[in-house]
Write a structure and sequence with these properties.
Elements lengths: L3 H20 L20 E6 L14 E3 L2 E5 L4 E6 L5 E6 L4 E8 L2 E6 L3 E6 L5 E6 L9 E3 L2 E5 L4 E6 L5 E6 L14 E3 L2 E5 L4 E6 L5 E6 L20 E3 L2 E5 L3 E7 L5 E7 L6 E2 L3 E5 L5 E5 L5 E5 L11 E3 L2 E5 L4 E6 L5 E6 L10 E2 L3 E6 L3 E6 L1 H7 L1
Antiparallel strand pairs: 1-32, 2-3, 3-4, 4-5, 6-7, 7-8, 8-9, 10-11, 11-12, 12-13, 14-15, 15-16, 16-17, 18-19, 19-20, 20-21, 22-23, 23-24, 24-25, 26-27, 27-28, 28-29, 30-31, 31-32
C-alpha cells in the first residue's frame, strides 16, 4: 500500500511533468499571415544601424523628426541626427549615459531620458549638449517640450516641470503607484497650457502647465480580479488631443473620449491597450494587447470594424498614412490597412528582428526601427503614387 505522503510526492511529480510538457506549447500562437492583393508597392530608400537594442532596452527609444532630420538614440548613449532623404549623418553626440526614454524634438531642442535618472537637452541644429536635470528614477517615457516647459514623467508616479529659460524646476507632482505595474510609462502631452498623462493606478489627469495645479482626474481602468496580476490597470499609452477632445486607452480597462475642458466622458468602450492610440477626423484606431486592430467612430465610440489578421503578432501602434493606417509586427513586417474597412492592402518585410515602435509617416517617407537597432526609411507609397 502506498502511504499518504508517498501519494502526495507522486502527485507533485506528475504535476511538474505536466507543467513541463505544457511549457513547450504556445498558448496563443501568432496568426499566420494570409496572402493579400496588394494595391501598391513599397520601396526602401535607405537603412542604417543606429545602435544596440533588445526587447526591453530599445523599446522606449523611438526616433524623433525635426524638419529634415531623423534623430535617434541608442542604449549606450549615442545620439545621431540623419538627413531624412539621404541617410547621411548630420551630427553625432555621445552622452556617456545608458538611455531609456525618448526621443523628443520640439522648439529647437532635443530631449532624452536615461536609466540613471537624468534628462539631457541638446540643440537640434548641431547636437550640442545644453543642460540636464536630475529626477528620482529612470525615465521610460519621452519627455514633453512645450509652452516654455520641459515635462518629465517617471515610473515612480512623479511628474517634473522645468523652465526652458532658467532650467530650474517649476513644480512636481507625486502619485502613489500600485505594487505591481507594467514596465512602461505614459508620456506626458502638453496642449494650451495643460499637461496630461496617465498613471499606473488606471487614472488620467490634467495639470496646469505653469503651476502644476490638478485640473481634473478620470479613471480609465479599474482593478478587477483577486490576484495582483489580474488587477494591473496601467495607462501606458500616450493620450491624444484632437479638436476639443482627449482620447486615451488603458490596460485591462477602457478606451475613452472626454471633453478636454472638464474631463467629462463623451464615450468609453471596454478594451485592453498599451500601444499608442491613433485618431483622425472620423475614427479612433486601437491596437489591443491581443493584436486585434479596432476602429471606433470618433464621436460615438461605436465599433466600425475589427481586423484579427495580426492576432498575437505583437503589433505596434498604428500610424496615419492618408486613407490607410500602418502597423508593424514581431516578424519585421509593416502592414497597410484600409481606414474604411480594415482590409489589408499592402505589406513589406523590413528584417527578421521585429518592428519596435509605431512607424513614423512624413510627406515623403515611412520610418521604422526594428528591435536590434536598425533604422529603415521607405518611400511613402502614397506620395509616389500622387506624383505619378
Amino acid at each position: 500500500m502506498i502511504s499518504g505522503w508517498t501519494q502526495r510526492i507522486l502527485a507533485l511529480l506528475l504535476a511538474v511533468v505536466f507543467l513541463a510538457a505544457c511549457s513547450d506549447e504556445v498558448v496563443n500562437p501568432p496568426k499566420q499571415l494570409d496572402d493579400i492583393e496588394e494595391k501598391f508597392s513599397i520601396d526602401s530608400q535607405w537603412v542604417e544601424v543606429i545602435g544596440e537594442g533588445d526587447d526591453d532596452k530599445f523599446s522606449s527609444l523611438a526616433p524623433a523628426i525635426w524638419e529634415d532630420k531623423i534623430i535617434t538614440a541608442d542604449v549606450k548613449g549615442l545620439m545621431t541626427a540623419y538627413d531624412q532623404k539621404t541617410g547621411s549623418i548630420i551630427w553625432e553626440t555621445q552622452l556617456d549615459q545608458p538611455l531609456s526614454g525618448g526621443v523628443t524634438a520640439n522648439a529647437g531642442l532635443v530631449a532624452v531620458g536615461t536609466k540613471n535618472a537624468q534628462v539631457h537637452v541638446l540643440d537640434v541644429k548641431d547636437g550640442k549638449k545644453l543642460w540636464h536635470v536630475d529626477v528620482t528614477t529612470e525615465v521610460l517615457a519621452k519627455p514633453a517640450i512645450g509652452d516654455g516647459r520641459l515635462v518629465v514623467r517617471t515610473p515612480d508616479g512623479r511628474i517634473f516641470a522645468y523652465s526652458l529659460a532658467s532650467q530650474k524646476q517649476e513644480w512636481f507632482y507625486d502619485r502613489i503607484i500600485p505594487n505591481l505595474t507594467l514596465r512602461g510609462t505614459s508620456a506626458p502631452v502638453t496642449t494650451s497650457g495643460v499637461v496630461i498623462t496617465g498613471f499606473a493606478n488606471g487614472k488620467m489627469a490634467a495639470f496646469n502647465l505653469l503651476t502644476g495645479d490638478l485640473i481634473w482626474e478620470q479613471r480609465i481602468s479599474a482593478p478587477r480580479g483577486s490576484s495582483e496580476i489580474s488587477r494591473i490597470v496601467d495607462v501606458d499609452s500616450t493620450p491624444v488631443v484632437y479638436a476639443n477632445y482627449l482620447y486615451a486607452a488603458g490596460f485591462n480597462g477602457f478606451a475613452i473620449a472626454m471633453d478636454l475642458t472638464n474631463g467629462r466622458y463623451l464615450w468609453r468602450k471596454e478594451t485592453s491597450v498599451t500601444k499608442e492610440v491613433l485618431v483622425d477626423a472620423t475614427r479612433v484606431y486601437l491596437v489591443e494587447t491581443s493584436g486585434k486592430v479596432v476602429a471606433l467612430d470618433r464621436i460615438t465610440g461605436e465599433e466600425v470594424w475589427v481586423q484579427e489578421g495580426l492576432l498575437y503578432r505583437k503589433p505596434t501602434g498604428a500610424a496615419d498614412n492618408e486613407d490607410y493606417i500602418v502597423v508593424g509586427d514581431f516578424e519585421g513586417y509593416l502592414h497597410w490597412l484600409d481606414k474604411s474597412t480594415g482590409e489589408f492592402v499592402a505589406r513589406t518585410h523590413l528584417d527578421r528582428y521585429g518592428v519596435a515602435h509605431a512607424p513614423i509617416v512624413t510627406n515623403d517617407h515611412i520610418i521604422a526601427t526594428t528591435r536590434y537597432g536598425y533604422l529603415h526609411v521607405l518611400e511613402n507609397p502614397l506620395a509616389k503614387s500622387s506624383e505619378e
